[in-house]
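Lab notebook, bench 4. Still working through the backlog of constructs that have no structural model yet. Next entry is a single chain of 908 residues. Request: give me the structure tokens for it.
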Amino acid sequence: MITAPPGFGKTSLLVDWHATGALSFGWYSLDSSDNDPTQFWRYFVAAVRKVKPALGEVIQLSLESGGSTQVAPPVEAILTGLINEINSLPAGDVFGLVLDDYHAIQDQAIHQGLTFLLEHLPPQLRLFITTRADPLALPLSRMRVRGELAEIRSAQLRFSLEEVAAFFKSKPNLALASEDVERLATRTEGWVAGLQLAALSLQDYSPEEAHRFVENFAGNDRFVVDYLLEEVLNRQPAEVQTFLLETSILDRFNGALARAITGLENATAILGKLEQSNLFLIPLDSRREWYRYHHLFAGLLRHHLQHNYTPPQIDELNRRASRWCQQNGQESAAVNHALNAHDYGLAGELIEQVAEGMIVRAELLPLRNWLAALPEELFLSRPLLTISYCWTLLLTGQGNRVAKYADAVESRSSVAVPGEPQPAKVHSFVESNLAVIQAHLAYQQGNFERTIELSAKAFELISADTYSAGSSLALIVARTYFQRNNPTAAEKYFQKALEFGRLAKNLYTTISAVVALGEIQMAKGHLLEAASLYQEAVKLGQIAPNKPLPLASEAYSHLAEIQFEWDRLDEAAESLKIASELSPYVGNLRITLFEKFLNVRLLAAQGKMSEAFERLAEIEKSDLASKLNEVKSLLESYRVWLYLKESLPQDEKSVKLVRDWTYRQTNEKPRNLAVRFFWQEAMVLVRARLFLQEYESALELLEQLQSQVQGLTGYLIEDQLLQALAWSALGNRTRALNILAATLTLAEPEGYRQLFLAEGLPLLRLLHQLEAGSHLTYPKAYLQNLLSAFTESQLLVGPKPAPSPESAISPAVGVTAKTARSDISKPPLSTISSHPIQPAYNQFTEKPSERELEVLALIATGLSNQEIAEKLVISLNTVKAHINRIYNKLDVSSRTQAIARARELKLL
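Model written out:
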């Protein structure tokens, strides 16, 4: 960090070092306009990409594009993605990034974001900050203690006497006596800008004139800076002075804009002369078309402008700038200059022209600031402006402030807009948007009846000019019906949202509607149709092959869930990885929550139980837990689910944990089961009751749940599957097998697999019973496919019954899955084999076949599954199927147990 007052050469030092080629640099020069966090991070990422073009592409896209209901992504999410990308670079691939003039930044959100970056700074990135004062909002003290901060201050930047002498000696046409050099060095105290400005003032002075100048120069005078700058400015020709003063109102300019402001036909030539003279003019592009003034020089020029021009004259300069920017497609600059000109009528007209597009792109902060800068009387007299302000408040989480302005629009919407050529069209636009905003407000307040009532009126107002608003309205109505457990009506309105979104070419609402339709199809058990819809949404969200926009994150996460259910775990992991990389830039916490819990399920299916528990702990520590009310309850249910799936030692403590959670859930207020999270929570409650041997209670709950989700076959399949296990545990084999056969018939057309595999050994035994002795009708090939899909790790999971109160609780024995946590072991074998959920042939009533005995013998020699397959010249899946049958017939759940049991029965 380089800290010093203005003019000490902070920037020049870095420029000179960069010229040595010792390190590649990205550069971001700051001013007060960079206090918009979205703009700051957009330019920050752009500066990184100047050096490393392969980095930050998705981040930049997310910052430059958005949807109609999307706000700026969270800063930590943006930086986490950028940090991860930089960390992926080779260790020696080091580059630098300069934040020049950081003192211009006052926004606390930017300070917080930069603090996060500093706390997680990748070793490949060197960050350089130049500033006039220590940025106290940054963690400088901690960084000093940890040795992570190198500092250069004014004491190191001051020119020594020798350096001052060398500096003046390098200037042509400038001869100073040694005593004059020493006097300037003393009076400027080595201040580089003072020396530079003195040199400019001394150009073409005779030695006598130079001596008098130095004699009259007072280095400790607080007006020294103004004096030197005035000397520079006043020595310019009158035409150049006029050019400098009048163009000082511009943040950036080219020859054409300068000509429009000053009226000077030779403006481009003057620009060239100023650059050649090194007169505080900084080129902004390699073609040297666009420029800006050094901040210090610009400030001086504006100070002189205020003292030499009247306010109406300055307003006219800004008005000219606004008109030129408007005509040349620079809408943002046009609005800013109109506001600076105090021409609020012009500013209002310009804002009206760009407001809808800015809302669609989620450029909400600058729009809100513009609108707030208008006089309230004008603001409230123009319904288009008031409507736009309502949207900016609503979409930035300030819905509590909207009612006042919505009421103002409603009371004035019949007033024709001044200057509007089509007042009827504007009136229609305002009326329809107002109705949609009022419906949004009702939905946010949880007043679903009012939402439906207002939406019905709003739909009557939607026309071809307001399809985008209609799409947003239809999404709200669909979500309202879904919250009210009416998926049929929800589907109808999601279709309407899709229709309106396509007509309006609104990509955000279109993708949202397609994904939502896929969710409904999945709930109905139509996995193939759901997958097709998710794939369509993925394609819609791609700007080029393999280049998805962040808006596609939700589509990828739901596609991962389908792949997970089909037991394509590698594909699911890849889709989920893409979703997780994209979703932070969307900023939708519920999408992020869905992805994180799906990742827990995926890890559990892969047998990575320790990692699954770690992911839950991460969710608990994240901001999701504090910002979403449902997270705490979901964390508890997922943790219990993992306990049941991993079959923790069945001691009193673990049983009590499950029993206490079950009691709490039983007394919870019923929730909308059409919402997937809540259905999953209800299914964990059923499994917990099975674990606690509360079979009748589990069946009662399953029957209640079944009645609430009629028509949602995806949910019914899981409900019936657990019913079959419950009846089997009660010893009613006939009923269990009947239900299981019907469940297989429902599941087979859509290829369900993971739902069955997750139940582990209890379901495997029941499937073998169905295969061995039943004359029921069911898809036999599908059953065989499921049996062959069970793996050793899956045989070690599934809800096992808790010991009855009167039974002894034995110490856990070391029967664990290879990927299970090292401190968690399986329940005792005696506990498993003695329970009524076990099949009738537990006592070895069915002897292994000759081929199975061959496999068993090879297992005893220590061969792996692959080695057994090669030895017997059969496929790996066939080996797994033989091992599954061996485990089932011997009533065991691991190779070690199988060998021991076989020797006990003298099979080996």
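Notes after review: Strands lie at 2-3, 25-29, 95-100, 125-131, 152-153, 281-283, 291-293, 542-544, 547-548. Residues 27 and 311 are 36 Å apart (CA to CA). Flag for follow-up if needed.
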